[in-house]
Specification:
By secondary structure, this protein is mainly alpha-helical. About 80% of the residues lie in helices and about 0% in strands. It contains 3 helices and no strands. It has helices at about 1-40, 45-65, 80-105. Helix 1 packs antiparallel against helix 2 (about 45-65). The longest helix has about 35 residues, at about 1-40. The radius of gyration is 19 Å and the shape is elongated.
């Protein structure tokens, strides 16, 4: 029950992240178009784009972690038994959770 709720929450966050990235893209195109046509771009467009993309990445990370879609360099682990790889993946997931907790606290 909780697992299903967390999966749905991660999906909702990922969709919100996609919406933030789309909004940043639309704003960038609008700003460039306005700059070309009237020499008046959207004020603060660079900062807003940076914020939107950072937000998008943060919102998509839980879904990527859940689906195992994060970038993994398996050069050192490709010859290990599956149980050891799972153990290392679990440790990585725990470290990621600690990092997110620290970032949430500091934000």
């Amino acid at each position: 029950m909780i697992t299903l709720a967390l999966r749905r929450l991660a999906l909702v966050f990922a969709l919100a992240g996609a919406a933030a990235a789309l909004a940043a893209a639309v704003m960038t195109v609008s700003s460039v178009t306005m700059r070309a046509l009237s020499s008046r771009p959207i004020q603060g467009d660079v900062e807003l784009t940076q914020f939107a993309i950072a937000l998008s990445i943060s919102l998509c990370l839980p879904w990527c972690q859940l689906r195992g879609a994060n970038i993994i360099v398996d050069f050192f682990t490709q010859r290990l038994p599956a149980s050891r790889v799972r153990l290392l993946d679990g440790i990585g997931t725990l470290l990621l959770a600690v990092m997110f907790t620290l970032l949430s606290w500091r934000t």
